[in-house]
Specification:
The structure holds three protein chains of three kinds. Chain A is built from 17 helices and ten strands. Chain A is α+β, with helices and mostly antiparallel strands. Chain A has two domains: about 110 residues, Enolase-like, domain 1, CATH 3.30.390; about 290 residues, Cytochrome-c3 Hydrogenase, chain B (Orthogonal Bundle). In chain A, α2 runs antiparallel to α3. Helices cover about 30% and strands about 25% of the residues of chain B. In chain B, α1 packs across α2. The termini of chain B are far apart. Chain C has a single domain, classed as Rossmann fold (3-Layer(aba) Sandwich). By secondary structure, chain C is of the alpha/beta class. Chain C is about 35% helix and about 15% strand. The chains are: A alpha+beta, B alpha/beta, C alpha/beta. Chains A and B meet through α4, α10, α13, β6 and β7 of A and β1, β2, β3, β4 and α3 of B.
Chain lengths: ~400, ~220, ~140
């Protein structure tokens, strides 16, 4: 970044990454820059490829459930649920209805904590650290309730093939309601802070736009797709667990704002409204939850024996906080599956970065990258290649550029 | 896109009509969960490799599909690829999964790209190239996706034949052993030697346990 | 050695993810947010290893990350303390038999404090940081 460099005005390349491995696989970006503007963006995931699918093909599904918990620390139940549903379809077993409801309740609590986590990280990328601390403090309420229900804050380990491991007892209901009331009272405040704040409007409105056509063609899922106006929510469209019994409407930005722009701001709106929606779903579940068993079979050796009789292939899907997760499993009468493919939600969303980023400014990279919620997003290290000279730019500096832009706009 | 939502049987009939002999087999799986037992349908269609692109065009004519992912299995003599689509998303409880399956014989592992029809597919196609060793003909971006650059050529993690992961690549992180840089054990007296053997036996007993039983006991 | 009543420095930590599932990451961030608020004691996460006293490593060290971990370790100024958070950094955890690992962490760099758990609770992480600070004070005492 020497000032007298003649190559300063020509397009130069900025690699960013490997990113904070929030995804199943973190990403390394390469940008071709023209001044402050991004001309072309490219990325390479796989910085922390662990080969989970390969390991899974050597283990039995009961063991894999614990592995699926650890595909992503934030989606502690999403992958397990999708995987268990795939295996249950192959084994042709019916999950007890009560277990379906408990699965939905835990999945919705996960959505609440995940969206709040994301909102905090987005605020941090804009340089609004007060808001980061505020959202993470209110997130702890959901974490406490999850811990009460499952025994763990992260990686809940509640899903078992054929049901769930823990029941929700009547004496836990007051604590759950207390948590839901807390978020009901908080919702107005959160929406006011995020949606009426002039700074957030300036940084996020018309920034990182993804058109509806691009969202469809690039196979995006979840809040990212919905913010671009694609009506797509696995819970509503393809009912599973308890979701078929409930009254749910997909959250689309035009229902709140009257229009859909597909920008970062719309993505914030969708996620914040989904916090409220999730609380509503949990209330509905608690009201109509049937009594009964929570497991198809309690004896592990019997479940293992059933795997050896299972033949066939199936797909399990679930709407995770970030969008659809899909597990394809194939069993051929052995304890371990013959094939297992995990499709995480961010897997589908990464391609949408390219149309979002191209044409934007370097200081907008952190918030746009974060806006699809690739779990957390933190740029680890940036190397600037300029006229053949290579200098290292840290994540801190990129973050500083973003914060400075906020300050400039506020003047 | 036609206006009326077809039943799963009608969708299958459209494929049979449009593709004729290209369809090898079809199956409709139904799943009902929750208290109300609302049905959800997954349509499985087995195709000839040549029928893959026409099948996707047929699917686009029905409703622009959402491609979730392409999965793959090594079934011995061939590699099967499954293209997992969903159609009619956005209709309450009316979405169908449509999985198109093509089998590629091991001596000719080539499949045409579908990225010209659905640009988002390139991500998944890149993964299939590195994980299963199939060649996606005409892929706009053929680089590796997840595997590191120094990953050996000709090794494909999901294959179950000689091109799978060799044992030498697996580093068992649970393994504990005597550090290699320590001096050799002193010559042991007879009774001490007996102890060592007993200890080694004990160790074999612990490590020799099958993981599945260990797991089972933990849950009991 | 006991921690002195007035710490002789505010402890700055750099977090390095070597391929973790992100569970430990969010618990580390949760540990620095207002419920626990260790920043009262000057403990905070920094964006560059050159500013750090403490290197927090998570994950089982995938092959691509090995060299980067070594480079980051060398960038942390002496005296430094390394803390390994999460069970997959200490033994591989559920990923022990993967084909793409070079771990565990102590095969790559020396580790001073292990915080077990999958993931450890924020309280455990803070306890680990306190132990790391004790060790750091001892190292400084030895240097002086």
């Amino acid at each position: 970044m020497s000032d007298g460099n003649p190559a300063k005005t020509t397009p130069y390349t900025v690699p960013i990454g490997p990113i904070h491995p929030a995804l199943k696989e973190p990403v390394m970006f390469t940008f071709r820059m023209n001044g402050e503007q991004i001309e072309k963006a490219d990325f390479a995931p796989g910085q922390t490829h662990r080969g989970i699918e390969w390991m899974g093909m050597r283990r039995n599904p009961i063991q894999i459930v614990h592995l699926t918990d650890r595909i992503c620390g934030i989606c502690g139940v999403s992958h397990s649920l999708a995987f268990a549903r795939a295996v249950e379809q192959i084994m042709e077993i019916d999950v007890p209805e009560r277990a379906d409801y408990i699965r939905a309740i835990i999945a919705e609590f996960e959505r609440i904590q995940s969206h709040l986590l994301w909102a905090g990280m987005a605020a941090h990328e804009l340089g609004f650290d007060t808001l980061l601390h505020l959202t993470w403090r209110v997130r702890e309420q959901a974490m406490d309730t999850i811990e009460l229900l499952t025994g763990n804050r992260v990686n809940y380990g509640i899903i078992q093939i054929g049901g769930v491991r823990r029941d929700i007892t009547p004496d836990q209901h007051p604590a759950i309601h207390e948590c839901l009331d807390y978020y009901r009272d908080l919702q107005g405040k959160l929406l006011r802070i995020f949606l009426e704040d002039a700074t957030i409007q300036m940084r996020c409105r018309d920034c990182g736009i993804l058109t509806r056509d691009d969202a469809l063609r690039l196979c995006t899922v979840g809040p990212t797709a919905r913010a671009s106006g694609v009506n797509m929510d696995v819970r509503v469209d393809f009912p599973y667990a308890a979701y078929g019994d409930l009254d749910i409407e997909p959250i689309l930005p035009d229902r709140y704002l009257g229009e859909t722009r597909g920008d970062v701001f719309d993505r914030i709106v969708v996620r914040l409204l989904e916090v409220e929606q999730s609380a509503g779903i949990i209330r509905q579940c608690l009201d109509v939850m049937p009594a009964g068993d929570i497991l198809w079979e309690t004896k592990i050796p019997k479940i293992l024996a059933a795997f050896k009789k299972a033949h066939g292939e199936a797909v399990g899907r679930h709407e995770a906080p970030r969008g659809e997760v899909l597990h394809y499993v194939r069993m051929d009468g052995k304890e371990h599956p013959t094939a297992w493919k995990v499709k995480a939600s961010s897997y589908s969303n990464l391609m949408s970065w390219i149309p979002m980023l191209e044409g934007e400014q370097i200081a907008d990279i952190p918030i746009i990258v974060a806006s699809i919620d690739p779990c957390l997003s933190c740029t680890d290290r940036v190397a600037v290649v300029r006229g053949g000279r290579r200098s290292i730019m840290t994540k801190e500096e990129l973050h500083r550029l973003s914060v400075e832009k906020t300050r400039r706009l506020m003047r | 896109m036609s206006g009326r939502r077809m039943t799963p049987d009608e969708v299958v009939a459209v494929f049979a009509r449009e593709l004729g002999g290209g369809v090898r087999g079809t199956r409709i799986a139904e799943r009902r969960e929750g208290a109300k037992k609302h049905p959800s349908y997954t349509i499985w269609i087995d195709l000839d490799r040549e029928a893959l692109k026409p099948a996707i065009r047929t699917l686009i004519d029905i409703h622009f599909p959402h491609l979730s992912v392409i999965s793959g299995t090594d079934i011995g003599t061939a590699v099967e690829l499954n293209y997992h689509f969903s159609i009619y998303y956005g209709t309450k409880g009316g979405e169908y999964m449509v999985t198109l399956t093509v089998a590629l014989p091991k001596d000719d592992l080539r499949v045409p790209t579908i990225a010209d029809l659905i640009p988002g597919a390139v991500f998944s196609e890149r993964e299939k190239q590195e994980m299963l060793g199939v060649e996606v003909v005409g892929i706009p971006d053929g680089r590796r996706l997840f595997l590191p650059e120094e990953f050996p050529e000709g090794v494909y993690p999901w294959r179950k034949d000689g091109t799978g992961i060799p044992d030498a690549m697996v580093k068992d992180l649970w393994a504990v052993g005597r550090p290699a840089n320590r001096p050799a054990r002193p010559v042991v007296a007879r009774e001490v030697q007996g102890e060592v053997q007993a200890a080694e036996k004990e160790e074999a007993k612990v490590t020799g346990r099958a993981p599945s039983t260990e797991e089972a006991e933990r849950h009991e | 050695m006991k921690l002195t009543k007035s710490f002789n420095r505010s402890l700055w930590a750099f977090h390095f993810n070597s391929g973790s599932c992100n569970g430990c990451e969010i618990e580390i961030v949760a540990a620095i947010t207002p419920r626990y608020d260790p920043e009262r004691f000057g403990i905070k996460l920094v964006g560059s290893p050159r500013h750090a006293d403490l290197l927090i490593v998570t994950g089982p060290v995938v092959k691509k990350m090995r060299d980067r971990l070594l480079r980051v370790y060398e960038q942390v100024p002496d005296p430094k303390v390394v803390m390994c958070v999460g069970v997959c950094g200490s033994s591989g955890g559920p990923f022990y038999d993967s084909y793409n690992l070079d771990g565990p962490v102590d095969d790559v760099i020396p580790v001073d404090v292990y915080v077990p758990g999958c993931p450890p609770r924020p309280e455990a992480i803070i306890y680990g940081v306190v132990r790391a600070q004790e060790k750091l004070e001892r190292l400084e005492g030895e240097r002086a």
